[in-house]
Specification:
The chain is α+β, with helices and mostly antiparallel strands. The chain has 2 domains: about 40 residues; about 140 residues, Protein of unknown function DUF4738 (Lipocalin), CATH 2.40.128. The protein is built from 2 helices and 11 strands, in the order H-E-E-E-E-E-E-H-E-E-E-E-E. The protein has a 5-stranded antiparallel beta sheet with strand order 7-8-9-10-11.
């Protein structure tokens, strides 16, 4: 009887010890699992490669037509801008290429016939640009401004693409089709502080 009780007690204690051991092992396993999850240094982030220049960027085409009373007659002044692949492209400091623009101006009589037709590119304004703008600038825009006596006045700009820097220009066309260009120093944002002498450009054109 004593032996049986001893054996029973021994067996009972062995089972309790085994339970304690199992519980302890389970706790260690749980702690170990948590430690393995908290190892961000084991995560390898993908290497980010710097993107090179994209394909050449071009501005949108636009067209603007104004009804104008000029020299006592009604005219339509039509201005169109088109990006031109035939013109030399320019690059910024990152090597990104930009397509330059060609801008056409037509003055139409009331019957629809063409009184004056002109085409402008950045090269038209070379005498009023710095070397940097000749190399890196594009002809951004040209818009009708006002009628001044015998002249139609337009505002033009050659800009550094995707920046706020540009050289503003005034374009004047008289009733003989002659073009006069001036640099608008009051609106200049190029930071050059330069002023150029006026320049007249004459074109073969019939009188209106």
């Amino acid at each position: 009887m004593i032996i049986r009780n001893f054996a029973t007690n021994f067996k009972h204690e062995s089972m309790q010890n085994n339970k304690l051991i199992i519980v302890a092992l389970a706790a260690l396993a749980a702690v170990g699992g948590c430690k393995e999850k908290k190892q961000p240094q084991d995560i390898i982030a993908p290497k980010i490669e710097a993107k090179g220049p994209s394909s050449p960027i071009r501005m949108q085409s636009y067209s603007d037509t104004r009804d104008v009373l000029w020299l006592g007659k009604s005219y339509k002044v039509e201005v169109k801008r088109e990006p031109s692949d035939s013109l030399p492209m320019v690059k910024d400091e990152s090597g990104q290429k930009f397509v330059d623009n060609r801008i056409s101006v037509r003055v139409l009589r009331s019957d629809g016939t063409v009184a004056i037709s002109k085409s402008f590119t950045k090269a038209t304004f070379n005498d009023y640009l710095t070397d940097h703008y000749r190399k890196a600038g594009i002809l951004e825009g040209l818009v009708f401004d006002k009628v001044d006596s015998q002249q139609l006045e337009f505002a033009a700009s050659v800009s550094l693409p995707q920046t706020d820097e540009y050289i503003p220009l005034e374009v004047k066309i008289d009733n003989f089709g002659n073009v006069k260009i001036e640099r608008d120093s009051e609106m200049d944002t190029s930071g050059t502080g330069q002023s150029d002498a006026d320049n007249d450009e004459n074109f073969d054109e019939d009188e209106i």
